[in-house]
Every structure is written in structure tokens, then in C-alpha cells.
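=== RUN LOG ===
request id: a7f3
mode: sequence -> structure
chains: 1
length: 174
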Amino acid sequence: MKHTTKRPFDVYAPGTKDTPPKFLATVEVEVENRFGEEFLTLESRERIEAIRIRHIGLMSGEAIKAMRKRLHISQKQLTTLLQCGEKSLSRWENGHGYPTGVVNTLLRLLDENFLAPASLEAVQGPRPTRPWIEQVQSLPQQRKKPLRYREDCSSSQQEVRSVKVELYEILCCP
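=== RESULT ===
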């Protein structure tokens, strides 16, 4: 005779006083028939953990590895850019922990194309003696090129791109 049965179980993100709980997924639980206790299956625990990590904004190991491959950078190069340990990155990529704080934020910025690896490389090393904005403001007017906008972008994307274009043109195109 079977001592357990399986049944669906809904998982919700907690609500606040202003918002109701948010449905996230349905997983399977095992119910012990004699006492009515419910246990998560291994697959359900893994699914809930993946949902929790995504819900709070952490990058999973699979996502970090996929991003690194997409950017064509090695683990060594990424640890240099993030200024973190090689063992930490290896643990994250293998699913034995998650990046937190600033490192997770930098990874998300890289993954979502708000930040390029070259930008992180550019700010490593000693700081310039004068802040870059003063250097830009002191350039002769003829070196300052007009901004370019793309028609298919939102205004916030245009602003970010225009700053990138302006900085590139000022610093790299005399």
C-alpha cells in the first residue's frame, strides 16, 4: 500500500498591505497519507528556488555562464572585470551559491546590455587627476560633435546611447 500521494500546490510571493500575494507557480507536493503531512519533491524544491532567485533579481549560474559565453569572455576575464575571485565565479556558475550586492548588479547590467565589458575595463586602474567632466568641458568647442539619436529607441534609451556616443566621440575621435 502506498503511504504517499502527490497533489498540486500553488506558490505565491508574499503581498504587502497595498498589494495582494502574487501567484508564481504550481508545484507538486507529496502528502503522507497517515498523518497528512506535505513534503516538497526534489524537483519542486529546485523549481521554487529558481523562481525565488529570479523574483529577487539574482542571476543564476546558468544565466551567468550564458552571458559570459555571449560576451565571448573567459572566467578569468570576468573575474578581473568584476574584481571577484575565480573560485567564487566558478561556484556561482556551477550552482553552488549566488552573487550578491554590487557583483550581482554589475552582472545584471552586463547581461541586460546597460554596461559593456569595455566600460568596466576603462575604469580599472588609477583615476585621472581631473574628473572627466572637467576634461570634456575644457575641450575646444569644435572637438565636441553633435549627438546622434536612433528613431527606434525610447527616450531613456536615447539618453543613455547619446551619452555613450558623446563620450566615445570626445575621448576617441579627436
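=== NOTES ===
The chain has three domains: 1-56, 58-125, 132-172.
The mean pLDDT is 80.
=== END ===
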